[in-house]
Amino acid sequence: MIRTLVREIQKKQAPIVVGLDPMLDYIPSHLKKAAFAEAGETLEGAALAVWEYNKALLDAVSEFVPAVKPQIAMYEQFGIPGLEAFKKTVDYAKEKGLVVIGDIKRGDIGSTSAAYAVGHIGRTQIGESRISAFGEDFVTVNPYLGSDGVLPFVKVCKEENKGIFVLVKTSNPSSGEFQDQKIGERTLYELVGEKVAQWGEECTPEGCAYSNVGAVVGATYPEQGRILRALMPKTMILVPGYGAQGGKGADLVHFFNRDGLGAIINSSRGIIAAYRQEKYASYGETGFAEAARAAVLDMKQDIAQALG
């Protein structure tokens, strides 16, 4: 799967992933009005509004980006109808030729991680049949429980040619409470980065420069990004924190390798809710998808300029 991601990044000249994190507040009023008229102010109505919003966004940006990243919590808040919207979003994104990164941040004891891995990137055995449940291409994984929580995902990656992104240095302000703590002379995030590189050695397709085991490193910590890039030369880095969280193109240089690859930059509300920004206000609510497209093109230019 990493080969597919790299190929699409090169083809579209855009190391960008759009985070599909649809808070109900982001959805334009005309979409909510239509959804509530059909299904009421219910979980079903909210999920319908989410789906129509996502569909329009995917139609607008799929030509320009290689991947999308739906954050499952934004769908789970709407219960079973929300999860159905999540699945429809995954399927539609794949129909549009996009790589789908399920932002699920799972990680538990071995048997539980195995179930998460099978449910999201593998196939569930039911009698004589093996059936894909959610069907993402990559998922995010929390490594706090150690190898017990990660290796079941690695196993499924090898079986199904799928991928994971392991949380190493996250973009949120309090990440340093744990991730920056030192064990001897090394920070915890460095030790996790080294483990990611080791896990990746088991999961690198023959002849490929990158592994199916990637890392999450926030754009808000460019110096840590430089350190981790050196520790994980064959690791694709998923970089959240661009845009709304304060990360800029100039912060991203050290996340990339000399080949111009090795990182994919996420922007969520900076794209999907671009119409609410002053810069794109002229598009209005009804032009939310066109505003998202404009924000993607601006992001692409910002990154290209930063990388020279």
Describe this structure in words.
- This protein has a single domain, classed as Aldolase class I (TIM Barrel), CATH 3.20.20.70.
- The chain is built from twelve helices and twelve strands.
- The chain has helices at 2-12, 29-39, 43-61, 73-76, 79-95, 110-121, 147-160, 176-179, 188-201, 222-231, 269-272, 288-307, and strands at 16-20, 67-70, 99-106, 124-126, 129-131, 138-141, 163-169, 182-183, 186-187, 213-217, 237-239, 263-267.
- Strands 1-2-3-6-7-10-11-12 form an eight-stranded parallel beta barrel, surrounded by seven helices.
- Helix 2 crosses helix 3 (43-61), helix 3 packs parallel to helix 5 and helix 6 (110-121) runs parallel beside helix 7.
- The longest helix is centred in the last third of the chain and has 20 residues, at 288-307.
- It is globular.
- 48% of the residues are buried.
Concise account of the structure shown:
By secondary structure, the chain is α/β, with parallel strands linked by helices. The protein has helices spanning 2-12, 29-39, 43-61, 73-76, 79-95, 110-121, 147-160, 176-179, 188-201, 222-231, 269-272, 288-307; strands spanning 16-20, 67-70, 99-106, 124-126, 129-131, 138-141, 163-169, 182-183, 186-187, 213-217, 237-239, 263-267. It has a single domain, classed as TIM Barrel (Alpha-Beta Barrel).
CATH topology: TIM Barrel
Distance between the termini: 28 Å
The major sheet is characterized as: 8 strands, parallel, barrel
Name of the CATH first level: Alpha Beta
State the helix count. 12
Order of helices and strands: HEHHEHHEHEEEHEHEEHEHEEHH
Alpha-beta content class: alpha/beta
Share in β-strands: 15-25%
Number of strands: 12
- Spans where pLDDT lies below 50 across 5 or more residues: none
Tally of separate domains: 1
The whole-angstrom Rg is 19 Å
Helical fraction: 40-55%
Oligomer state of the chains in this structure:
single chain
